[in-house]
Amino acid sequence: MISNINSALANAYANASNDKLQKGATPKAEPMISSQGDKSKVDVIKESIESGTYQLDLQALSQKIAEELL
Predict the structure, then answer these.
(1) 35 φ/ψ angles, rounded to the nearest 5 degrees
(2) How far from 54 is each of 25, 26, 32, 34, CA to CA, in Å?
(3) 17 vs 66, more confident
């Protein structure tokens, strides 16, 4: 069950990225960590999860899970 969710999340992210590129958006360069004080994307997400402010797009997530199950 968890593996289905993981693959659905990965597919949702990949599809969203492809949709943005097809609409003409340019891919953003990942910021380089230049010093010890810089936070990585993972650290920012981790802090937002711990503080309870991280939100999922439940509609998109549930749709991708349903598509994977069909």
Answers:
(1) -150, 170
(2) 25, 25, 23, 26
(3) 66
Find how far residue 47's CA is from the centre of its chain.
15
SS3 8: helix
Task: Give the residue from 54, 67, 51, 70 showing the smallest Cα distance to 11.
Answer: 67
Distance CA 21, CA 14 (A): 11
> What is the rounded average pLDDT of the residues 34-58?
83
Look at 59 and 21; give whichever has higher pLDDT: 59
The answer to whether residues 48 and 54 touch, using CB atoms and an 8 Å cutoff, is yes
Handedness of CA 23, 10, 62, 47 (dihedral sign): negative
> What does pTM read for this prediction?
0.33
